[in-house]
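[scheduler] slot 2 assigned
[scheduler] job type: sequence-to-structure, two independent chains
[scheduler] chain ordering preserved from manifest
[runner] begin chain α
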Amino acid sequence: MQSRSPTWRRPLTIMTVCLVTGAILVGLAVIAFRWQRGHLNAMPIPTADPADSAPEWPVRSAGPISRAPGLPPFITSVSNDGRYLVDQHGKPFYVRGDSPWSLPVDLTTDEAAIYVSNRQTYGVNALIISALGATANGGPHDDGRTVDGIRPFVDKNVTMLEPAYWDRLHSYLTLARNAGITVLLYPIDSWVIGHSFIPRNIEQCEQYGKAVALRFRDLPNIVWMSGGDYIPNTDDVAAGSDADHCINQMVRGIRSTGDSRLFSIQLQASNSTDNAYWARRVDWNFVYTYPPAFTQLQRAYHTSPQRPAILGESNYEGENNQPETPPTTTEGLRRQALWALTSGSSGNFYGSDDWEFLPGWQDRLDSPGLAEARSTWSLIEGLEWWRLVPDADHRLVISGVGDCSPGDVDVLDRDCLTAARTAEGDLAVIFVPTARSLRIDSTQLKPDATFEWVDPVSGARQPTGRRSTYTTPGTNAGGDTAWLLIARSN
């Protein structure tokens, strides 16, 4: 039996309870915030990285199987100058991506076929997919079971792949291959560590990587990824966290099979090369930012040694991760994509809240945001985008640039004009997100260059004369005032 507190202590006890309760609630709020904004991951067991002193990994190119005749283009390697991705035919590959993270565990085979076919009609050529599920990455169960109960591992042993699970994932990746879609596949992401993925030692991380690579060695449409909303839990970033070491050994397990397909890592709200541990281990730069993307993309573009930069994650349609700002609109999605084009990115990924396949996702397949993405990608197809160099020092556009200051703000809170041109001056692309007048130094372009305004929504073109000052034509087909000014030499 518990003794009752004296009457004089009750107010203090109540106050103490309130204070303790408040502290707990604040703590939970901080944890929830961190869980939403990025995972501070620690492995469930201590690990060490015996290969931490290994030299930089070379830029990879895919093996012979990816060059089989008759296949559509897939991402296979990096250009000689390190600026962009190329396909198995050696041609520049502009990423037109979507982000169905939890597809393997949330969809049946028939549903996956519907989804992939739909994305093919929109010109999507790359998908972000987690190989394993957990509730935090959109899966139905924290132990990695699929929607119909198939587990990824035998007895939770990460070195023993459950055939039914991995056969199904193979069939989904085959659907993507047949649709001409490269899959950025995450064998481990930040949400599954300690849930559906629990290695007993670091050797199992390597064994798992080897098993996954062998399981999918026949598929030419895979780029290896890891991370996610990932913040390494370590005080010594350069030395790496336990989770970093496990991911590193996972990739080494993949490489041990002779698999040389490209690898990169997604780090929460930063570039892959911002992390000292991963900067020397990635083949390309995954750019992840919710604020306006131009600053971070241009920093990635100028990273040494040069590696392709891709806008891998920014605000998704209908979501917004900037506090007290409205959901992302088609105008915001358009800015993200066109800032990417003119700031050195070799593509961008679209996304929506159906990354986790919420109820009714089938009715939202043909969303306005995806239609907007297709329109933007269609404009880029006709450009030799891989030759463009960002006009970061404003030599081409000398006034009317707008507000390009960095800051943790919404994409619609910056009106930064971004431009890019070729070294030869025979092509320039200027993205003007809001109505204005701008001045151009035409000596940066060839004398025979002709100019036209392009509606980024409809694709309609309005030729305009060569002059030093230009004023945007008014409202575009989407109802806002964004335009592209494109100059080409005959």
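[runner] end chain α
[runner] begin chain β
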Amino acid sequence: MKRSARRPKYRRVMLKLSGESLLGKRQHGISPETCEDIAQEIKEVQALGIQLAIVIGGGNIFRGLAGTKHGLERSTGDYMGMLATVINSLALQDAMEKVGVQTRVQSAIDMRAVAEPFIRRRAIRHLEKGRVVIFAAGTGNPFFSTDTTAALRASEIGAEVLLKATKVDGIYDCDPVQHPDAKRFDRLSYMHALKNRLEVMDSTAFSLCMDNSIPIIVFNLFKRGNIKRAILGDPIGTLVSE
């Protein structure tokens, strides 16, 4: 396998994708073309020789909190959201394996017909063998977001960084869509993010990363090559660290 001339800054990486990242130009569901684009980029990242794990949300299919606004019981809605993440994980696995990236899906909810159960030591072994591991079904418990799942699994597997891929190019002091004069941060401390309740990730996820000294890089997924740039250590997006 051809290796990049540059050495990556991080060897074991957790990539957090939103469910909306699979939408493409659709309003709902999954865009096969977008899955293929992400798979191709991940293939290029794999050529760096790094170990990559992924957590993906389910908001393109169902979001538990949205269901509660219409009377759905919170735990039920969250479990439905977890199942949506399994659908997305299988779609991304299919796209990646079509471009030659060996991938395993591990689910926090037991469904052995479609995914392995989450077993930490097995996940690490897959990573060591060069396989991408997608962690599906959240933590397996309601009331926890997929951002928290990404922080938890990153801590469990010993990831050196959490890459939070979004539709904006970093963390701002307010919504840049509604406020054109919003200020983007190049770097933030965990405590600043927590005290100011920055909504790019929930407080539990920030706290887990802070407690386990896992830096977070928030960047724009839709600019081609940004995942690779982040792993190489290029200054993109916003870095959240000590």
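[runner] end chain β
[qc] chain β: The chain has one domain: 12-241.
[scheduler] slot 2 released
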